[in-house]
Write a structure and sequence with these properties.
Layout lengths: L12 E2 L6 E3 L4 H14 L2 E5 L5 H15 L3 H4 L9 E7 L4 E11 L2 H11 L3 H29 L9 H5 L6 E7 L2 H7 L9 H7 L5 E2 L2 E8 L5 E6 L5 E4 L4 E4 L7 E5 L1 H6 L8 E6 L5 E8 L6 E2 L18 E2 H10 L14 H6 L1
Parallel strand pairs: 1-11, 2-3
Antiparallel strand pairs: 3-12, 4-5, 5-6, 6-14, 7-8, 8-13, 9-12, 9-14, 10-11, 10-13, 15-16
Bound molecules: ligand L4NPZUNZ, 2-oxoglutaric acid and fe (ii) ion (FE2).
The site of ligand L4NPZUNZ has 17 residues, from strand 5, strand 6 and helix 10.
């Protein structure tokens, strides 16, 4: 049997490298410096000793696996994802597909309790696991954003965290389930006229199985401020520090993987980088990731604090915009499209003042 190997897709390079691992229980000023360095160099880092309780994580993970184990017809009752709800294979509205099924939820408690009725047979238990998890990861995200402001010497230490603490914050929680290959083959047409499984494994050459790699969630950057992601012990996440180069991120269920979103790149005037990443599906094992996307209220105006408009960029690199405007642009584009560039001030405009 041919199995998914880490063979790079043609013209891609796989580079071995470990992401910075930051111990949040270390000395505060040291931690803030390490976070700033990681955000400038990679846009990604892992945090350990993060203070989110194992019990809160375990409850959320259990609810996620319980939901994804349901028969398709039951899961579809929580769909379609428009953009929130249950989705399978289709990502967004513009034709992106991947070997993934997911639940996308707004983080406000009222919307969670309403949604949970279509998601779980015990909606109260589901709601309580989700709200408990969101509260804990939002707290972690705020702490990290405060450490970033400190490390950047921005006097208003809550300048970033305030946006996701706001009651009107447009933050999301996404549970992604990447089924193993055998489950995907089971779901396909098994009639005699259809292809046999072994034939499929050898010769499938569309975007889903490419040199042994099945793309679960295609290349993209996250549009929001900050993403806090946790997965089970099955790998798949890869980051792309430069075009055509992919760095696999080793799974660690006790850590959170944190990444800079497009808005934080804009609010740090390009000092922090929102880096493209993707997730591959594993051949044998189910991968489940849980991503918290910290976002501001829709009307929030995105501009860098004045302390960050300094050399080498003494003008704002991006024109001011609202999250509503940016989100609308993101939703109108394909997953892999670069959107922040559309908001960049032209060099001539900067010279003109
Ligand atoms: C194809 C798309 C899916 C996405 C909205 C978009 O038009 C482009 C950005 C995508 C993304 C990536 C990160 C998050 O998973 C997400 C929820 C987000 O905010 O932006 C998804 C969007 C989605 O799945 O609706
Ligand atoms: O599943 C993963 O590890 C990555 C998911 C992701 O990038 C996303 O949901 O935006
Ligand atoms: Fe992402």
């Amino acid at each position: 049997m041919v199995v998914a190997s880490p063979t790079p897709i043609r013209s891609e390079k796989i580079r071995a490298m470990e992401l910075p691992i930051i111990d949040l229980s270390a000395e505060r000023s040291e931690v803030s410096k390490l976070i700033v360095k990681a955000c400038e160099e990679y846009g990604f880092f892992k945090v350990i000793n993060h203070g989110v309780s194992e019990d809160v994580i375990a409850k959320m993970e259990e609810e996620g696996f319980e939901f994804f184990a349901k028969p398709t017809s039951e899961k579809q009752q929580a769909g379609p994802a428009n953009p929130c709800g249950y989705g399978s294979k289709n990502i967004g509205f513009n034709g992106d597909i991947g070997e993934v099924e997911y639940l996308l939820l707004n983080t406000d408690p009222l919307s969670i309790s309403q949604r949970s009725k279509t998601i779980s047979n015990d909606p109260t238990k589901f709601s309580s696991a989700v709200t408990g998890y969101i509260e804990a990861v939002r707290g972690l995200a705020c702490e990290i954003l405060d450490l970033m402001a400190e490390g950047l010497w921005v006097p208003d230490r809550s300048v970033f965290s305030r946006l996701i603490r706001d009651v009107d914050s447009d933050s999301l929680l996404r549970l992604n389930h990447y089924p193993p290959l055998k489950d995907c083959l089971k779901d396909r047409d098994t009639s005699p006229s259809s292809m046999h499984s072994h034939h499929l494994l050898h010769h499938h050459s569309n975007s889903k199985i490419n040199n042994g790699n099945r793309i679960g969630f295609g290349e993209h950057s996250d549009p929001q401020i900050l993403t806090v992601l946790r997965s089970n012990d099955v790998g798949g996440l890869q980051i792309s520090p430069e075009d055509g180069v992919w760095v696999p991120v080793s799974p660690d269920p006790t850590a959170f993987c944190v990444n800079v979103g497009d808005l934080l790149q804009a609010m740090t005037n390009g000092r922090f980088v929102s880096v493209k990443h993707r997730a591959l599906a594993n051949s044998y094992k189910s991968r489940m990731s849980m991503a918290y996307f910290g976002a501001p209220p829709l009307h929030a105006r995105i501009t860098p604090p004045p302390e960050l408009v300094v050399v080498p960029h003494s003008c704002s690199l991006y024109r001011p915009f609202t999250w509503a405007e940016y989100k609308k642009t993101a939703l109108s584009l394909r997953l892999g499209d670069s959107r922040l560039g559309l908001f960049r001030v032209q060099d001539d405009d900067q010279i003109a003042g």
